[in-house]
Amino acid sequence: MAPGPLSKVKVEIARRMRQAGSPTATIAKMLAEPEEKILNAIEPVAPLSVGAMNGGPNLAKANAARRKPEITRAQTSGGSVKADRSEIEARLAEIPTDTRDLTGRIFGDPLHGRRAIDRRSEGAK
After folding, report:
1. Intra-chain end-to-end CA distance of the chain, in Å
2. What is the pLDDT of residues 22-59, one digit of tens each?
3. For residues 48 and 56, what is the distance between their CA atoms, to the nearest angstrom?
4. With CB atoms counted within 10 Å of each terminal CB, which end of the chain scores lower, N or C?
5. Half-sphere exposure at residue 54, Cβ-oriented, CA atoms within 13 angstroms
């Protein structure tokens, strides 16, 4: 952890990790640098207003507004979906019966009717 700004190599690594979806805490740990230094390097921020720099009443609010909000996967996956019991039972009825032997179950063999060869033979008919 060297004082001063991050090296160009570390900035590039941090940017690539961020683009791949790594959280700032993980990037900071991997590069052995504080999170604030990583954030300042990969997400340049707008300067604070004069009132905020002088310790105005909304300093925390101004600091939060400088950074763009991070959207999590949970926020983009949509809301919860409710299903009727009859719909659930209908979907479960579509699953073929499990006729595999113990070895097939342990090693994850596909169910009959869901194998690639079954799909191919259905397509040929």
Report:
1. 66
2. 888 888 888 888 888 888 887 766 555 555 555 555 66
3. 11
4. C
5. 4
